[in-house]
Design brief:
UDP N-Acetylglucosamine Acyltransferase, domain 1; nine-stranded mixed β-sheet; 31 strands
Length: 429
């Protein structure tokens, strides 16, 4: 795969993941207690033998840049790299990235300087494990100009995707971006042509684009330069390429989740605790997920009841009950807490004992989770300070609320405690 260049799109504002994207880029959002979203496409690329990788960013990219620089350092004798490319003003373009295709177009001068055969275009907010070698092999075997990774979906999910129709040779002959109503019904196909059983085809009668593409080098350059007003791959570049180029599909019939919304992000994390058969397995010897090594001590558990949970490094858990939850790095949970169905992103650092004692003497809340606190169905962002006898349980069953001045908000019934927030003693949410 030395003749493939991987381009990861991570420049979106991430409004659907707000407030998790208030202070960070979407690909930098923590995942599974110790990773970040960007680690998924980067790890997939590295495990597939692709070592020339660019990440395109735009909003709040400082923490993403730091994570990539501290984590992905190819050997000095290799020509591999992982570089971040941020939106910038140039004589040719004075605007920020206007869409996925425009982001690639603005750096096309750099991408075409590489002596590669194909460009692999990836998204930075999907959870899946794919061997891109098989994807690219399919692309080359069919002599395709563009190959789209696809998965079969049911009617309930279909309108959230770009859908396509294919002929008997798997060539794309029709594409519609997130159709609804009559337009959605027009995209219904017999997905058994992809190799599904008749029963599977009946349940999943639509072919959805995963937003993952392989472009032949010359084709990507030509499509972007000949259509300067087309700024999005799914809405413009792909539909307009159907009649001109050979577009093929690659079936990916495994776990894949677009975790671009709070609800999807929450469930994707909590589902990781479903041992021994979570929908996505972190534990794969031949396809590891890489992230920054932190050299933290092991987690210390003191007289706790823990069920179906994931504990990251460096935590201290004291006499508490924890179930179906993901606990991030350096988290300190004090006596008598009850934690259920919740995701904790952990802490970036440890507080010194002197600092904790000083804060407590002043009636302030130290970092971590205070005594006798109850937390259910919540996302707790980094470096939070939650006091004693707090209840984060969405007592009034609110679906959506904005209380950022009080350190939290609610999305889809899920309580989100903001990064660096302080929740005083005896608070009930």
């Amino acid at each position: 795969m030395r003749d493939v260049l991987s381009i990861i799109l991570g420049g979106g504002q991430g409004t659907r993941l707000y407030p998790l994207t208030k202070l960070r880029a979407k690909p930098a959002v923590p995942l599974a207690g110790k990773y970040r979203l960007i680690d998924i496409p980067l790890s997939n690329s590295i495990n597939s033998g692709i070592d020339k990788i660019y990440v395109l960013t735009q909003f709040n990219s400082a923490s993403l840049n730091r994570h990539i620089n501290q984590t992905y350092r190819p050997a000095p004798f290799s020509d591999g790299f992982v570089d971040v490319l941020a939106a910038q003003q140039t004589p040719e373009s004075t605007d920020w990235f206007q869409g996925t295709a425009d982001a690639v177009r603005q750096y096309l001068w750099l991408f075409e300087s590489w002596d590669v055969r194909d460009y692999l275009i990836l998204s930075g907010d999907h959870l899946y494990r794919m061997d891109y070698r098989l994807f690219i092999e399919r692309h080359r075997q069919t002599n395709a100009d563009i190959t789209l990774a696809v998965l079969p979906v049911d009617q309930k999910r279909a309108s959230a995707f770009g859908l396509m129709k294919i002929d008997s040779t798997d060539r794309v002959i029709g594409f519609s971006e997130k159709p609804k109503g009559i337009e959605l019904e027009k995209m219904r196909v017999d997905t058994s042509v992809l190799g599904l059983t008749p029963e599977q085809a009946l349940q999943n009668p639509f072919i959805a684009s995963m937003g993952i593409y392989v472009f032949r080098k010359e084709v990507l350059i030509e499509t972007l330069r000949s259509n300067p007003t087309h700024v999005d791959f799914g809405k413009e570049i792909i539909p307009n390429a159907i009649d001109r180029y050979n577009l093929q599909t690659y079936l990916f019939n495994d776990y894949w989740e677009d975790i671009g919304t709070i609800e999807a992000f929450y469930h994707a994390n909590i589902n990781l605790t479903r041992y021994p058969n979570p929908p996505f397995k972190l534990y794969e010897d031949d396809a590891a997920i890489y992230t920054r090594p932190r050299y933290l001590p092991p987690t210390q558990v003191v007289d706790c009841q823990i069920k179906d949970s994931i504990l990251s490094d460096g935590c201290v858990l004291e006499r508490s009950s924890i179930s179906h939850s993901v606990l991030g790095l350096r988290l300190h949970v004090k006596d008598g807490c009850v934690i259920e169905d919740s995701l904790f992103m952990g802490c970036d650092f440890y507080q010194k004992k002197e600092e904790i004692a000083n804060e407590m003497s002043q009636g302030k809340v130290p970092m971590g989770i205070g005594e006798n606190t109850v937390i259910r169905r919540a996302i707790i962002d980094k470096n939070v300070r939650i006091g004693k006898n707090v209840q984060i349980i969405n007592r009034d069953h609110v679906q959506d609320a904005d209380c950022e001045d009080r350190g939290y908000c609610i999305r889809g019934g899920i309580v989100i405690i903001l990064k660096n927030a302080t929740i005083p003693d005896n608070t009930i949410i």
